[in-house]
Write a structure and sequence with these properties.
The protein is of the alpha/beta class. The chain is built from 13 helices and 12 strands. The strands form 3 sheets. Strands 6-12-11-10-9-7-8 form a 7-stranded mixed sheet, sandwiched between helices. Strand 7, helix 9 and strand 8 form a beta-alpha-beta unit.
Length: about 425
């Protein structure tokens, strides 16, 4: 308390001295202004006004210079008194000042090094001029050469001939999973037959749902009724009757207690995983899952262990290792929320998950199962209910959390997660 009192007294003395000096300057300026000529006096002859003004200004400036020149001495005395009364405070403040100066110097040095490295790899002005001149004279190089850019006929699709790139092969329209082609060249110049349509392997609209006239009419009616804008997503505009009807229809179709609709397909699996797993939980994840699930894994900040893709032996090994750690730590399996994370049909591999074996393991070791069935829903199963139906399993019974995108087989936008009322309500909150 004594040290703090002395420090406060020093700060007060410094502030009081500075204020008194400023007050004297203002008083002197007021006294000088009394001798300054008014506007009416400017026209009076025989008075050298410039001399009076210069003298007044010089006197005022001299006082300010004298005051400023005394500040270092006053600050030195104040600092010395503070050092004697509170050396610890002075030490801490000095270290902070040194740290700030060091950070500034290091940052400038790092910026200088970065600029030098950029200069080393950057082309010179002469090289830039040469490149521009070459571009103007020769134009852009072709993406592929004529010899490399040929579409070789396979399986008799284009006959025994080959059609060169740039010879006029054009995609006329895209209808679902079909590409309709035509060529601008005449039959004399083009010796191969161009099929009317070919299978499009570059689409995720597997069953051509987006080309359905019924779906298009429904989308047009919804657009006319609700409109469209930058705040159209549910998170901005809010929940409307169409959202609730879609959720109810999906939960009835999949036989679950509820469903929740997301405005983006990738965000459905990402947000679902991050909503249920948190720091301290355990995720056992197939190393072949897609990017959206990996983002959700990172956002959850849970403890993560990966098993080899679709390798049930490796999965069992990891589960048994976790169980042995529980025994060593005297920890119950229910003390920690644990999930198995897989895809029904893997986007990056094109393989099906052995869901029956995975369900058997998750029941044996007391885990919950999260399945991303974005590429299985609508395409697998007797009724198109996805990978679970294909494997003879059911949501809620064998899989606690089922999430999927509506942007593939359903030919729409957004995503959904289905499950029990507890699962759905937890995500709404």
């Amino acid at each position: 308390m004594v040290v703090a009192g002395k420090f406060t007294q020093h700060v007060f003395n410094l502030g009081f001295t500075s204020g008194r000096a400023i007050h004297n300057i203002l008083l002197d300026a007021r006294s000088y202004s009394a001798h300054w000529p008014s506007l009416s006096d400017l026209a009076i002859p025989n008075i050298d006004i410039s001399i009076i003004n210069v003298a007044t200004i010089q006197s005022l400036v001299g006082y300010i210079v004298s005051f400023v020149s005394q500040l270092p001495n006053r600050y030195r005395k104040w600092w010395w008194n503070l050092l004697q009364s509170d050396p610890l405070h002075v030490l801490v403040e000095t270290l902070l000042i040194v740290a700030c100066i060091t950070l500034v110097v290091l940052q400038r040095r790092a910026d200088w090094r970065f600029s030098q490295e950029r200069k080393k790899g950057a082309p010179t002005d002469k090289e830039i001029e040469e490149l521009l001149q070459e571009w103007k004279e020769n134009g852009r190089k072709p993406l592929v050469s004529r010899k490399e850019g040929t579409i070789t006929a396979r399986s008799g699709l284009l006959g025994k001939q080959s059609l060169e790139v740039g010879n006029g092969l054009v995609v006329d329209k895209v209808v679902g999973s079909k590409l309709f082609l035509h060529t601008k060249l005449s039959k004399e110049k083009n010796n191969c037959e161009v099929p009317e349509s070919v299978l499009n392997f570059a689409t995720l609209d597997y069953i051509a749902t987006s080309s359905s006239q019924i779906l298009r009419k429904t989308a047009l009616d919804a657009l006319n009724q609700y409109g469209c804008g930058s705040c159209g997503p549910r998170g901005f505009y809010g929940t409307i009757d169409a959202h609730l009807e879609a959720e109810e229809a999906m939960s009835n179709f999949l036989g679950t207690e509820g469903a929740i609709l997301y405005s983006d397909g990738a965000s459905a699996s990402t947000s679902t995983l991050a909503a249920f797993a948190k720091r301290g939980d355990l995720l056992i994840v197939d190393e072949g899952v897609n990017e959206a699930l990996l983002v959700g894994v990172n956002l959850s900040r849970a403890n993560v262990r990966y098993f080899r893709h679709n390798d049930m032996k490796d999965l069992r090994r990891i589960l048994e290792k976790v169980r042995s750690q529980d025994v060593a730590m005297k920890r119950k399996a229910t003390d920690q929320r644990r999930f198995l994370v897989v895809e029904g049909m893997y986007r990056n591999w094109g393989t099906l998950a052995p869901l029956k074996e995975i369900v058997s393991l998750k029941e044996e070791f007391s885990y919950r199962l999260i399945v991303d069935d974005s590429h299985g829903i609508g395409t697998l199963g007797t009724n198109g209910r996805g990978s679970l139906e294909h494997a003879g399993l059911k949501p809620m019974v064998h899989c606690e959390i089922l999430t999927f995108s509506l942007e593939y087989a359903f030919g729409s936008v957004g995503g959904m997660t289905v499950g029990s009322e507890e699962v759905v309500d937890h995500q709404r909150l």
